[in-house]
Amino acid sequence: MKRLLTLCLLAALLCFCGGCTGAPLSRTAMLLDTTCTVTLYDSTDEALLTSCMTAIAADEQCWSRTDPNSDVSAVNSGGAVTVSEDTAALLATSLEWSTRTDGAFDITTAALTALWQTAEEQNRLPDNATLQKALDTVGAGKVTVDGNTVTCEDGTQLDLGAVAKGAIADRAAALLKDGGCRSALIDLGGNIVAVGSKPDGTPFHIGIADPQNPDALVTTVAVTDMAVVTSGSYERGYKIADAWYSHILDPRTGHPVSNDLLSVTILSPSSTEADVLSTACFVLGYNAAAALIDSLPDTDAVFVLADGRVVTTDGVQTVF
Ligand code: AMP
Ligand code: MG
Question: Residue 160 C-alpha to ligand 1 middle, in angstroms?
Answer without folding.
Answer: 8
